Amino acid sequence: QAQLVESGGGSVQSGGSLRLSCAASGLTYSNYCMGWFRQAPGKEHEGVAAVDSDGTTSYVDSVKGRFTISQDSAKNTLYLQMNNLKPEDTAMYYCAADPALIGHCSASQILIIHPDYGGYWGQGTQVTVSS
Questions:
Q1: Is the pLDDT of residue 101 over 90?
Q2: CA geometry: angle 122, 119, 32, nearest 5 deg
């Protein structure tokens, strides 16, 4: 059974940086669409960033130029480098993976990943940005 474990969240001031990590066990990143989504209190889930098996990346418009998704295949770890953080980035961030989305992997498609349909989620890590 695959498992995703996020880390790296925390509290920062506006303009600060954080790097989230997602360590995977039981799956090989090269065979999956991987990404991050977030949920802020009172708001719907939002796909943030994704990386396809061929390395193609995708971002929601609100984080373009500030966030970078990457992966270390040797460590089987996915990262989200977040720079110039804003209060509106405050949310619980989740890592997600799904083999069925290879070739169709995008920040918006991350939202359809669900454990009941062959996908995987982590437990989430909280990011809080104060003004």
A1: yes
A2: 95
